[in-house]
Amino acid sequence: MNGAMRWSLAAGAAAAVTTLTLGLTVIGGVGQNTTSASVLTVAELAGQTCSVGGPVQGLAADQAANADAIVSAAMAASSDNTLVARIALMTAMTESRLHNLDHGDRDSLGLFQQRPSQGWGTPAQLMDPTYATDAFVRRLLSVSHWQQIAPWLAAQDVQHSAYSSGSNYEPNWRPAGRILALVVANANAPGACGQGTGGLAGKGHGLPPGYTIPPGTLPKHAEVVRFAIAQLGKPYVWGGAGPAAYDCSGLTMAAWATVGVQLVHASSVQQTEGVTVSAAQLMPGDLVLVPGSDSPGPGLAGHVGIYLGYGLVLSAIDPQYGVAVQIWDTFVSGGLIAIRDPAPDQ
User: Fold this and answer.
1) Are residues 198 and 266 both part of a single domain?
2) Does 10 score more than 70 pLDDT?
3) Global pTM?
4) Helix, strand or coil, per DSSP, at residue 306
5) Domain-ending residue, one of 167, 187, 207
6) Mean pLDDT, to the nearest integer, of 189-205?
7) Claim to verify: residue 23 and residue 62 sit in the same structural domain
8) Distance from the first to the final alpha carbon of the chain
9) 143 and 248 fall within a common domain
């Protein structure tokens, strides 16, 4: 859709506010800042989406910090796949007991006891939990059948340990699940990963009575909005991509997938997907990206929502509110990173 058509739609939406008596302010004159993110690769952006922190029951402080780092990096490297994160935890628990070791068999180093001589990276890289986890996940995902075999066999296909059956990893599969649940609980703590800020637009889940999709909304955009509204009231869970629960980028990814548009499950990557539109050109279904309550860095989005028209934004806000609707001023109260249209002219 060209700028003139988008402008007409925005004006029509503004006029409709009075008709619906929603009592909401239509947005205007807001800026954007994508400069800091534009120089980063998609992989680098995904690696900065969330850094979980907090104690983990049963683990020493260094082990808990390493467990948090492994889950954060594994989720980022796998588009928030909790199975990948659990396999990574199981492997590191077996190889290092979640201690970042500066020694091991021959030249093995770090949480996964990876070897520089085997092409895993430099010694300094392998002592970095984020790098080491990312390297493990990349090799795991390159195993074509990793999802069809036992998790400990998948770990063995990556690590090539002395136990061809993966029997050394298997005993830590169940404990890894327990630790993963505790780390995810850290990520769902108030103000943590991917969460928004502020209150709702109104009672219930915030969608005003009488809301209808603004006239002139393009068909695929309208379908995205309909899907998003159907998710109202569902819980926020970090890493969730439906159908029972969502985090912010999981909801936007699922909504746009209904019309065949694939997005990466990371808000800081979604700020680079599709095309930039101005506030004056906003169309329902467009993505609105903000720092969120736990910004991953300057110029990087930590939270994302779907514009509904009439100055309303829907998102998976946080564990308190779940999937709900906010007014524009509340949604962008911490700043505006970008507005993106994942599928212009659709």
Assistant:
1) yes
2) no
3) 0.78
4) strand
5) 187
6) 87
7) no
8) 8
9) no
Residue 63: which residues within 8 A CB-CB, separation 6 or more?
56, 97, 98, 99
Q: Give percent above pLDDT 70 in the chain.
A: 86
Q: Is the pLDDT of residue 160 over 90?
A: yes
Residues 6+ apart with CB under 8 A from 299: 33, 34, 35, 36, 37, 337
- Please name which of 254, 260, 249 lies closest in space to residue 230, comparing C-alpha atoms: 254
Q: Give the residue-averaged pLDDT of 131-159.
A: 95
| Boundaries of domain holding 86 | 51-187
State whether 142 and 179 are in the same domain: yes
DSSP class of residue 334 equals T
* pLDDT confidence of residue 79: 80
Say how far apart CA 111 and CA 125 lie, in whole Å: 11
For 27-83, the pLDDT digits (tens) are: 333 323 333 333 445 555 555 567 788 899 999 999 999 999 999 899 888 888 899
User: Do 246 and 237 touch, CB atoms closer than 8 A?
Assistant: yes
> Mean pLDDT, to the nearest integer, of 295-319?
92
The answer to whether residues 13 and 217 touch, using CB atoms and an 8 Å cutoff, is: no
Q: Which residues contact 340 (CB under 8 A, 6 or more apart)?
A: 270, 271, 272, 273, 274, 275, 276, 277, 286, 287, 289
Overall number of domains in the chain: 2
Are residues 331 and 289 part of one domain?
yes
Does residue 114 lie in a domain region? yes
Task: Tell me if 55 is assigned to some domain.
Answer: yes
Kindly report the CATH number assigned to the domain that includes residue 269.
3.90.1720.10
Please give the pLDDT value at position 213: 97
Amino acid of residue 253? M
